[in-house]
Write a structure and sequence with these properties.
Blueprint: E1 2-4, E2 8-12, E3 27-32, E4 44-48, E5 56-65, E6 68-72, H1 82-85, E7 93-101, H2 105-108
Antiparallel strand pairs: 1-2, 2-3, 3-7, 4-5, 4-7, 5-6
Amino acid sequence: MLLFCGRRLLLRIEGRSMQPTLEPGDRVLVRRLGRKTAPCLGSVVVTWHPQRSKLRLIKRLNRLDSRGFWLLGDNPSENTDSRQLGAVPTNLLIGEVVGRLPRGESEQSR
């Protein structure tokens, strides 16, 4: 994972929880969101893991209620998400994925 220009993060996808939308090794651009800005339902967001403070989660926002964000992965068989974790507190939100960087030819052949 790389830090990128303060308001944006460039992160590399690890794991298969967001397949087929995102593949392991994909790089995504994440726009940081302020505390007063909520992402749209259905958007892909990045949060801190509610039980492992140094781990980030990337999931799709399924629902927002008084307890927090309900986040689901796109690949239910390869996932740890709100089905196991429950609601993720809103203060753990890092940002929203705004784009995926194209893979170079050498990365596609791996």
